């Protein structure tokens, strides 16, 4: 999200940003697209009939949702966690100022 959610929350304190504060994962086949949100949401789109992704068909195709959920989980299981070297890169002052101005870091 641009600018970051914490910056938008300060500007618009009454707006509920929870819907945007999540990550999404997706898997695509020749016919369907399955989307899984970190908030537990799921969506399924029939890409042949609805390439604009306007109609979520997850409730009418639970077997396909289960199949694609399993395929996505299996694929994700092939990744290894990143390893930290314990060393953090130093940011030069100009980059640090720009990131701070954008709200990505706090000085």
Write up this protein.
This protein has a 3-stranded antiparallel sheet, covered by helices on one side. It is extended. It has a domain at 1-73: 2-Layer Sandwich (Arylsulfatase, C-terminal domain). By secondary structure, the chain is of the alpha+beta class. The longest helix is centred in the middle third of the chain and has 15 residues, at 62-76. The protein is built from 3 helices and 3 strands.
Sequence-ordered SSE layout with sheet pairings:
Layout: H1 5-11, E1 24-28, E2 32-37, E3 42-46, H2 62-76, H3 93-102
Antiparallel strand pairs: 1-2, 2-3
What keywords describe this structure?
107 residues, Arylsulfatase, C-terminal domain, three-stranded antiparallel beta sheet, 3 helices
Task: Identify the CATH class of the domain at 1-73.
Answer: Alpha Beta
Please name the CATH architecture of the domain at 1-73: 2-Layer Sandwich
Low-pLDDT windows of residues:
none
- Characterize the biggest β-sheet: 3 strands, antiparallel
% residues in beta strands: 5-15%
Distance between the termini: 21 Å
Mean pLDDT: 86
Task: Write out the strand line-up for the largest beta sheet, numbering strands in chain order.
Answer: 1-2-3
Element order: H for helix, E for strand: HEEEHH
The dominant shape is extended
Overall helicity: 25-40%
Number of helices: 3
Q: By helix and strand content, what is the structural category?
A: alpha+beta
Number of strands: 3
Q: How large, in whole angstroms, is the Cα Rg?
A: 19 Å
User: What is the CATH T-level topology of the domain at 1-73?
Assistant: Arylsulfatase, C-terminal domain
């Amino acid at each position: 999200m641009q600018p970051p959610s914490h910056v938008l929350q300060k500007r618009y304190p009454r707006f509920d940003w929870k819907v945007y504060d999540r990550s999404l994962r997706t898997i695509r086949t020749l016919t369907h697209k399955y989307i899984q949100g970190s908030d537990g949401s799921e969506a399924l789109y029939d890409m042949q009939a609805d390439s604009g992704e306007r109609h979520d068909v997850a409730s009418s195709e639970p077997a396909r949702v289960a199949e694609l959920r399993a395929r996505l989980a299996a694929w994700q299981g092939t990744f290894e966690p990143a390893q930290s070297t314990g060393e953090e890169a130093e940011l030069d002052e100009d980059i640090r100022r720009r990131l701070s101005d954008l709200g990505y870091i706090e000085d």
